[in-house]
Design a protein that fits this description.
heterodimer; A: alpha/beta; four-stranded antiparallel sheet; globular; B: two-stranded antiparallel sheet
Chain lengths: 237, 289
Amino acid sequence: MTENQTPLLQVKDLVAGYGGSRVLQGVSFDVYREPLGMIGRNGMGKSTLAAVLAGMLPTESGQILMDGKEITGYAPNRVVKSGIAYVPQGRRIFPSLTVHEHLTMVGAKSSDRWNPNTVYDLFPRLAERKKNGGGELSGGEQQMLAIGRALLTNPKLLLMDEPSEGLAPAIIEHLADVFRQLVSEGLAVLLIEQNIHFALELCDRILIMVNGYIATEVTSEELSKNTELQERFLSVV
Amino acid sequence: MTSEQLFQIFLNGITLASVYFLVASGLTLIFGLMRVITMAHGTSYLLGGYFGFSVASATGNWYLAALVAAAIVGILGLIIHQVLIHKFQNDDLRVALITLGVAFIGTDLMAATYGGDAYQVPAPSNWLGTVVLPFAGSYSLQRLIIILISIIIGVALWLLISKTRYGAIVRAGVDDSQMTAATGVNTRVIFASIFLLGSALAGFAGVANGTLFTLLPGQDGTFLLYSLVVVIVGGMGSIPGAALGALLVGLVSQFGLYFAPTYATVFTFALMVIVLAVRPQGIMGKVRL
């Protein structure tokens, strides 16, 4: 399905890290207009990759192209303008802002696909919590708000870092429904997950990250059948 | 002591509080909200006062003088932020030392230009005279006008920070500046605008104080100190907190001056010590994680 298309996001030989230590050691992959999963054990560099793609961490070498245009080294606000929205690990909700302020501060126009009203339609729970402060929300509500905040930038690609972390199964199921709806509208998603079942359920194509590079690419079907593969790359010893 | 005297002291305290509030509101934005420790805030205050004096003396137009002083000091603050501070914004010690250097240079430049004389900014002629108030007897009209201007500015600032989209972006930027940028906001522009606003408020405070009282060399230091006390007492980053802190400091220092003049300064700092001991985050301050 993807062979004939041009990729939306291209990542080429990306090297990055903190201080002197290299966490990403040459990461290359393409994201098409699809839900793409990326899994791997803790400490393999998944969140570092997300931070680099979001413009929060500098790259040492390598390239990031969005829609064919180079965005390597862009500050976060310019990354957003290129069409990538970031739903960070731990949600990073602003404690000083109400739910409604989170949504209005982004500045989406009412003619955009995503504006505060359509986000409330997507997450009615947030509409009930409109006036509550960011610090008063449950983990699930915070995750909805983090996704809503990202959607308001009207992105082409949603970059999600461990959205299911710490959430109850019922809420994860609700997020999965939302995820499918967004994908059916043509939104590309890069889903970085520890929760292998969540990723397998939502993505056809799965990248496995090991020690700062992409070790292999599999289909979710292959991976769910192949326990040896799961053991080798993912099991916590 | 008559009750009329008591009310006069009370009004003097409010007058002083309104000037302290103007200086401290700028500081609470820059230091309290943005967490940039600026030691040059008193310099902005005195420089604003001197500019106000020069423009008002030359043109006879107080309003123009206040506007020009606030604008020039605001723009100078913006330049200092962009050129000297922005790069090191998260390095507190370095920013404190850089702004201390700016303050020293500013003090000397002002001394070289304006010398050691005391100046008073000429007020508009229709501000002169007194108003008869209930309980207090007659009180200076220009003091009441400055109090009113302070209240208007305070309410406007509070609305700006707590009710507008700009204010929400500022608060988000203070919570998590990277994540704010990741919603498409250019945080550098936002922080620069806060620095401009905070410095302009200090500049205007110089004009206000120079109109009611006098401008003297050395006031840059004392006003930095008092605005720090106000911000710490009221709670960092809170506009209502700065108003409350200014009110307490103003009243304590005026009543102290009347009842025990020798210890007036001690009372002000004792107030700070008590607040810090009982409520370290300041009266209206939030505990930060």
